[in-house]
Structures are given as structure tokens and as C-alpha cells.
Amino acid sequence: MKTPISLQINGETYLLNVPIKKTLLDVLREDLALTGTKKGCDSGECGACTVLMEGKPVNSCMILAVDAVGKQISTIEGIGGIMELDPIQEALVAHGAIQCGYCTPGVVMTVKALLDSNPHPTEKEVREGITGNLCRCTGYVKVVEAIMDVSRR
Q1: Using CA atoms, how far apart are residues 2 and 146, in angstroms rounded to an integer?
Q2: CA-to-CA distance for 39 and 47, rounded, in angstroms?
Q3: Per 3-state DSSP, what percentage of the chain is helix, strand, and coil (rounded to 5)?
């Protein structure tokens, strides 16, 4: 069974007709071609699918699209741009914190929410803030260094 919904994503309004049990992640990737948000575990464990909903990081694989109606959603496509990266993205690149890159969109979204709520976190707060983002390549050292660098700007 499908239902009509309206989603606010990256400042745009999308009118869709989706199955009631379709996740926000699947709508983003399959219906809207916003494929920057990655599909990792499909169980809310890895953070690859992190988007911001009302400014808070959420695992889009765990949210039904119908439950996102009326909420402001931001994806990685709404952060920075092709010609100008967001300072978080710049810092991750400058510090060599990106290896395979699969986790990077989720990390960027999580860090954006963290820095929006706490512009100058301690290293402990940064480490706690990114615990929901699994990265198998970096060991997190350079990721934390990059975030600390951004927070000092």
C-alpha cells in the first residue's frame, strides 16, 4: 500500500507516493537519487546512513519515510558543494581522514550536528559524538584531529 507524502530535504519539497514501510534511506537513494547517504548495515549500527532531521543526527535506515513528513531533513548533498567544500569536509581531506570514504557522509553529518550544538567540543566530546559512526579504515585518530581543527576555527 502506497501513501502520498511531502518531504522537506535540503530546503526542497518533494511530493512522493511511497509504500508505508519504505525507509527514509530507501526513499533518498531510490526515489530521489540522493545517493550520498550510504546504505551500510540496514540496522542502525554503522552510521553510514546518517542524515540530520530537525538538526539532529538520525539513522535514516531506521526511520520510515512517512515518519519524516513535516520535518526538515539535511543530507550530505545539502552540505558544501562541488566547487566549495564545507569546512568539515575540508578538514577531513586536509588531515587525511578519508580513506575508502564510505563512512564519510555519515561522519560529516554527525559532526555538523555536533559542532552546531557545541562549536568548541573537547576531544572527549568529539569521540563520544562520533561513536555512532563506524569507520573500518582510519582508526579515528585523523578524524578526531580534523574535527578538533574545525572546532578551533
Answers
A1: 43
A2: 9
A3: 40, 20, 40
- Per the structure, the count of domains in the chain is 2
pLDDT digits (tens, 9 = 90+) for 118-140: 999 999 999 999 999 999 888 89
Give the domain CATH number at 33.
Answer: 3.10.20.30
Considering 78, 110, 128, which residue would you say is the last residue of a domain?
A: 78
Q: Is 32 helix (H, G, I), strand (E, B) or coil?
A: coil
**Cα separations (Å) of 59 from 66, 96, 109, 124, 133?**
15, 25, 11, 22, 10
Q: Which pTM value belongs to this model?
A: 0.94
- Distance of alpha carbon 131 from alpha carbon 45, whole angstroms: 10
Number of alpha carbons in the 13 Å side-chain half-sphere of residue 69: 12
Q: Which position has the grid cell 526515489?
A: 31
Tens of pLDDT, residues 58-87 = 999 999 999 999 999 999 999 987 789 999
Domain that holds residue 47: 2-78
CATH number at residue 113: 1.10.150.120
